[in-house]
Amino acid sequence: MIETNQLFRFTTAGSVDDGKSTLIGRLLYDSKSIFEDQLQAIEKTSSNKGFNGIDLALFTDGLKDEREQGITIDVAYRYFTTPKRKFIIADTPGHIQYTRNMVTGASTANAALILVDARHGVVEQTKRHSFIASLLNIPHIIVCINKMDLVDFDEKIYDELCNQFKEFSSKLLVQDIRFIPISALLGDNVVNRSEKMNWYQGAPLLHTLETMYIGSDTNRVDARFPVQNVLRPQRGEFMEYRGYTGKIESGVFRKGDEILVMPSGLTSKIKSIDMFEEALDIAIAPMSVALTLEDDIDVGRGDMIVRSNNKPEAVKEIVVMLCWLGNTPLNLKTRFNLQHTSNKQLAVIKEIIYKIDINTLERVEGDQELKMNDIAKVKISVARPIMVDTYRKNRNTGSIILVDTNSNETVAAGMIT
Amino acid sequence: MGKYYLNYLDELEAESIYILREVWAQFKNPVILFSGGKDSIVVTRLAQKAFYPLKVPFPLMHVDTGHNFPETIAFRDKLVKKLNTQLIVASVQESINQGRVLEEKGKNATRNSLQITTLLDVLEEKRIDCAIGGGRRDEEKSRAKERIFSHRDIFGQWDPKNQRPELWHLYNGAYQEGEHFRSFPISNWTELDIWNYIKREKIEIPSLYYAHKREVLWRNNSWIPFSKFLKIDNGEKVVSKKVRFRTLGDITITGGIESECDDINKIIQEVAAMRNTERGNRSDDKRSETAMEDRKKQGYF
Q1: Which of A127, A180, B140, B278 counts the most CB atoms within 10 A of its CB?
Q2: How far apart are the first and last CA of chain B?
Q3: Interface predicted TM-score (ipTM) of this complex, two decimals
Q4: Handedness of CA A210, A212, A213, A216 (dihedral sign)
């Protein structure tokens, strides 16, 4: 079943030259999401640059330096809507030094678009991007074999590249990989079906994005409610009101459910699920609600409300796949504030178990240095227990960031294993 | 309940409410930057929903250039009264009187960029550590790169090339004394989302958004409202037109469009069919290709 009006987030990865910006420009342009004043500005810049026609890539330029240098520096968010879905694109730069941006863009995505230049095939960068997509557990990957116009729309070349990619990706954990032959420059198979590639039986890219089933992207099983704030109005009819605010990270809560507060272990029942002036019987992820409980027990920010028969683990030591994002390399003596759901605790990195060579995907043992864009499996000690699931099972309760307590910078992102 | 997914408006709303609750938890003294425009009205509505039955726990802060639409001020005062919350007015006129800023000269003079100093002065004076804004990423190209929790240094500056990475929905609001944050709970909304939400929630908005008769003159490709602040050139003619405004800013720089849309459904239809961006009628953004980025780096909202 196709559900209309859903929100769909995807990320795009590719290098300067494989046509990522052109593809996004094409998607926006052909889906009529570009306004006339933007178009005029871009026509003007295109002709200033001596470009024949409009340079679609200019739609995604943002900051002054990016326009001057012709590169993308930072994640940029783009929006477009079709009658079926509202789309949020996290457009991330493809350079080697910007891996951290791709991790950022990938963290919330339902799907990743990976671009492969039909003339060059699967290159190191393709592998890096695919690895990050699988590491961040993006549910769907769409491999766009681009620039088909430059290889005469040749089916054989397309098949070969698909096989090349499949062979390499068999080492990765990805649930759903699809392939589409496109020409972003000419628009073939982006919004409109290509007339030059009749041998391709699948749907064009936009149609794929509009109809892809994402109902199972969210964990519907494990009820998890990290508490953000406590609401105590202490006035009038709400004199006794005590509401716990939060976003349901996964699963379902119903009025009357037996619940457990972690880490205290106190139990109670859900008295009401409040959403502004409305009281709900049921609430699902990712709704933001306020819960009230039958019993007057101690609950505060950082606690997690779960159903009594399905608990996360409360642990003081976690093993995570860590992506180092900081400008300065890791110093093992640094203390961090670890943020996990609404919980913030002091933490230290105890051990680097191994690093991953992102080009070969092989483990490197014995290397104790972590610098920007490095990925490693590490052991972290936390001052007080945090309530965790594995990232594979639950992206929201399985993810952490590390904030340097001196600089306040977000220096690492981790996926709990 | 038959469906196990949220529609896009519910999901956007849930995300924004989550962000506002994070702001309340992570900062000591946040305010909502309130211009009287539709975006800050929607942010205020979301704050109302986020903390009910508590009243909105943030004061509304209005950076007042003195060049207001009278309708905006009336609307602001009415809303503040209804919410029973505090209003902080940061006055550009006072900054001028104190010699903190110099008024621009000439026909195209505006107080737009003067607001930066006034805003930063009041944030510092009142020790406000987070200013919640109605900025949206679809509005403008430099805003497309803005974080949801966006750090400002002790000079109030934004450093777009050196922003903290923001992953999942884990927001890092840590700062040193003297620094502050801007937070943008409706980053992921588009203009059309805002209108659809206003309709769904039956949110009251200033009458200026609906088509009405007004004295205007044609300048920089839009209908600039006549007011006592406007310097009129020879050759410019004040006429009466039926117009409405897509965004609300200073009365001196906010251009209207000719429109017959006098109710929300007609506005939504018009916005959906619109072929120009909403800020196309704002002369503050037209000064150069990077006008917004340049102002934002200095501390603009």
Answers
A1: A180
A2: 41
A3: 0.92
A4: negative
* Interface residue A292 vs chain B (CB under 8 A): no
Chain B positions in Cβ-Cβ contact with residue A3 (cut-off 8 Å):
3, 5
Task: Please answer whether residues B214 and B243 qualify as being in contact, where contact means their C-beta atoms are separated by less than 8 angstroms.
Answer: yes
Residues 6+ apart with CB under 8 A from A280: A255, A273, A274, A289
Q: Which of residues 67-96 of B touch A (CB under 8 A)?
A: none
Distance CA B194, CA B242 (A): 23
Residue B200 domain-assigned (yes or no): no
B153: Cα separation from own chain's centroid: 21
Our CA-based measurement puts residue B252 at a distance from the nearest CA of chain A, in whole angstroms, of 22
The residue segments making up the domain with residue B238 are 206-281
Q: What is the pLDDT of residues B205-242, one digit of tens each?
A: 999 999 999 999 898 888 989 888 888 888 888 999 99
Same domain? B186 vs B219? no
Give pLDDT tens digits for B124-162: 999 999 999 999 998 877 788 889 999 999 998 998 878
Q: How many angstroms separate the CA atoms of B138 and A380, rounded?
A: 38
Sketch out chain A's domains with CATH numbers: 6-217 (3.40.50.300), 224-307 (2.40.30.10), 313-416 (2.40.30.10)
pLDDT digits (tens, 9 = 90+) for A141-194: 999 999 999 999 999 999 999 999 999 888 888 889 999 999 998 999 999 999
Closest C-alpha to A126, from A113, A138, A139: A113
Q: What are phi and psi of B273, to 5 degrees?
A: -95, -5
